Each structure stands twice: as C-alpha cells, then as structure tokens.
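To: structure desk
From: M.T.
Subject: fold request, one chain
Message: Could you run this one when you get a chance? Sequence is below, nothing fancy, just the single chain.
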Amino acid sequence: MGPTTLGDRELLNRRQLLYSSAVAPLGLLASVGHTGQPRMKIEHIELFAVRYPTKGYFKFFIGPRGTYGRGAVIVKIIADNGKFGWGQSIPSPLWSYETLETTTIVLQDYLGPVLIGRDPLDIDGAHKAMDGALAPGFSTAMPIARSGLDMALHDLAGRLKGQSLSQMWDRPRGGPLTLSWTVNARTLEEAEAVIDAGYESGYSNFNIKVAPDPKFDVQLARLVRQRAPKGFLWADANGGYDQATALAVAPELADAGVDVLESPLRPNRISGYQALKKQGALPILMDEGVVSPVELSEFIRLKMLDGVAMKPSRCGGLAGAKRQIEILAEEGLMWLGSGLTDPDISMAAALALYGAYGLKKPAALNGPQFLTADVLAKTLDIKGDSATVPDGPGLGVEVDESKVIKMMKDTTGSERVRI
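Reply: Done. Structure tokens follow.
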C-alpha cells in the first residue's frame, strides 16, 4: 500500500462526511435520549437463514444446486434490557455478488461482532464500526448483508423510543403507496398471462424486465402499453445492454410508451451513461452501482443519470437510502421506489421510507406478487396494488419468531446463529 496522498485524504473525508450526514440525525437523538440515563448496550445478535417460498417465474430466484426461492437472513438485535429489533438481509446472487452463505458468514464473523456492547441508539457509530470491520471495494462492503443490521437497529431504536421511523425522522407517515406489477416474460404469450394476473390482482401499473434482446423488448413494451394505456411503464435492463444497443433501443422504447429506463448498462460504463443522458430519449435511472451517497454525488456531477431506483438493501440499509433520496431532492432529480422482491420485514422498512419521503410513482416492490409466506404476527396491509405504511414503533411490524424458526428448519435446515 502506497502513501496516502492529499487527494486520497480529501476523498476519504468526503466519504465520511456524506455517510455521516445520512445517519447523524438519529445519532443526535441517541445522545439527547441518554442524558443522565444508564447506557444501554447491544447484548447479542441472532441470525436465521431462510428461503421464502415463491410462485411464478422470476429470473433472480434461481439458486445453486437446483435451489429456488427468495433467500434471506433474518436478523434479531437484542439489547441488555431485553428489548429487541428485527431486520432482514436479502441477498440475490444473480443480481449482486452477495449470496445467502456469504451474507451469513459476514454477519456472523465480521459485521455482527463489532456491534456487541455498543449503544443500540448510536446508529451512526454502528455504521462506522462496520466500516472498520470490512474494507470497502468500489463502495460500501457487503451492503445487502449490512442492511439487515441497519434495519434491526432502526427497529430497535424505534421500539426503545416508542416512535415509528417517520416520527424519528420528523416526517409524515405518508401513504398509502401504489405498487407496480413485474412482467418478467420469456415470450409475448407468457407476458399476456402475467399482465392478466396483474389486473386480476388489482394492479394497473407495470414494470418490465428487458435486455439483452432489443427487438423482443420493444414488442413487449408495446404489448404492455396497449394493455395498460394509462399506467406507469418502467423498463429495467439490469445492466443487460451494451452502449450501442442501449442508444439504439432507448428511442424505440420511448416510442413504444415506456416512461423510464433503469440500468441500461453496467454501472461502470460511465461514458455510456453520459451518452444516454445526453441523448435524452428517456429518463435514465441508475440502480446497481449506486450503493453509498458518495458515488451518487459523483455520478450526478458526471451527468450520468436523471434519477435513481431506490432500494434500501442495496444502500446498506435505511440510513444510506434516506440520504440518497435527500441528495436527489436537493438536485431536483427523480427517485423511484424499488426493491429486491422484499419479504415482509424489509418490505416494511421500504414502505416506511418511501411513505415518509412522499413517493408518488408506483413502487416496484414485488414481494406480494412472488412470495407465498411471511413471518409476521399480522401481515402487511396490502389490498390490490395499495400498500398501507406500517405505523407501529420502529419498522411498525411484529415478527412471529416461531414462524421464523419453522421457515428456517423447513427451507434451509440450518440452526439459529448467536453472536
């Protein structure tokens, strides 16, 4: 490792400043709340590796050795006064490099242990401790794994204070939120059936998976627009085009009725994103490559995007996602609500965040479309395409631990991990 230069120090300082700004408000609440009171500590953390059963075809559910399902590590953080909070890490190996197995190991051996003994209200300090436990790559290390701890910390903080997330952030609860139906079809005939299922379930807005076949993608977009003439139509390529193809297909997708194009290229194709934004055929949203507030600010400065499809799990949790939404608002850019087929716990976190920040467009939170089980004592209030923002303390939901243990035994055969 070479000597640290002035430029390196400036970049490090900028990274620390941006990330600290994402979590500082809750850290301030922690310091105020503990004036003259005994300091609470995180006593231990428990992990439960599960696979939520699914229905329908979705390309991201395919796992190793013939497994299929929505993998997740459910996280429980317990304070020394007996209070606890729940979170959820939702790795998706065909979407990012994080797997169910690596997530479990990283939480067990690296990120989880550095939180033991810490003040459960000091979320800023928790993120700094996790920064020191695992070195970053291009951005925050293992953000999806980390997000489960972040959500559990927010849930615990809210329970300790008797406040919902929106109350802790001094924002309105918001909602209800409109959801979008995902069309991940391999043929136009299959797409017709998926659209029918969406309408039968009470949906009228659609997001389509596109790339790498631009001809099929345009046909798919025309079909969905014909079937949903007034709906919001969102195309997501998951980085599946090359630059030339993306530049050629963007105007055609616009002519077919698409409203926004998400992740047309891999996130390291900087000049390609600049060219697409300059072309202006469609609003260009980024997703996979925007993990921390640092790169978001850099990508905005480089004129690579018109907005971001937000995912708390991609951002290392609620703290980073919240700050990214604030940056986009400050810059007058678009943000849409998205997810990683979030199950119940992470779905509750996303609904709370999007409601508090006034999401207007339909959210691509497709857990209700594809997942067939939950671990909640009372299921989320979702009727048709309308999702109510939970209003209880913390994430606003109650987890049934017996359901968690049964799902763990039935789907992964693993044991509870105690840190």
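Reply (cont.): DSSP finds 14 helices and 14 strands in the chain. Let me know if you need anything else for the meeting.
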